[in-house]
């Protein structure tokens, strides 16, 4: 009887060690200029609305954004719609947000970053995107990562997607 009890406890511990976290990563929407304090363009606000529409029913528990206006504005429509605050993280080093997200279990997270950080964040979380660079005019990428933490290993599935309407050059 003791062996059955020990096996039962072991199985419970093993099952609680497993978790799945879903992470969405996007670049901020279209911006007016290259300054750190710039607002989104009208197309950028439309893209932020499209992001909110796409993710509103996905169970987002946490929203992380760099402290720049353009990233916060990209996240804000969704944050207001689902009642989740936008939490700032430093744009660099990306290890700060990677470490924070890796520690999250059983949640769904949105991370809003920049063209020079979102691929780095995805790689830091264990994804293997095939693209090597986000172009300056490319605002429609939406990466979904499914991070499964098992008792003996971690696996990451990477699903690239797009959202919103393409902007005119």
TrEMBL record:
Coiled coil: none
Protein name: Phosphoglycerate mutase
Pfam families per UniProt: His_Phos_1
Natural source organism: Spirosoma radiotolerans
Molecular function, one GO term: phosphatase activity
GO cellular component: cytoplasm
């Amino acid at each position: 009887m003791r062996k059955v009890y020990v096996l039962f406890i072991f199985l419970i511990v093993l099952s609680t060690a497993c978790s799945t976290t879903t992470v969405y990563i996007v670049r901020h929407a279209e911006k007016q200029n290259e300054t750190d304090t710039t607002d989104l363009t009208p197309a950028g606000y439309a893209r932020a609305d499209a992001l909110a529409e796409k993710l509103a029913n996905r169970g987002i528990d946490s929203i992380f954004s760099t402290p720049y206006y353009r990233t916060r504005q990209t996240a804000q429509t969704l944050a207001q719609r689902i009642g989740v605050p936008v939490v700032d993280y430093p744009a660099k080093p990306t290890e700060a947000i990677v470490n924070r997200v890796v520690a999250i279990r059983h949640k769904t997270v949105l991370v809003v970053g920049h063209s020079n950080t979102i691929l780095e964040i995805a790689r830091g979380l264990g994804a293997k995107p095939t693209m090597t660079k986000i172009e300056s005019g490319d605002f429609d990428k939406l990466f979904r990562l499914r991070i499964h933490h098992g008792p003996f290993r971690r696996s990451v599935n990477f699903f690239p997607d797009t959202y919103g309407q393409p902007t005119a050059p």
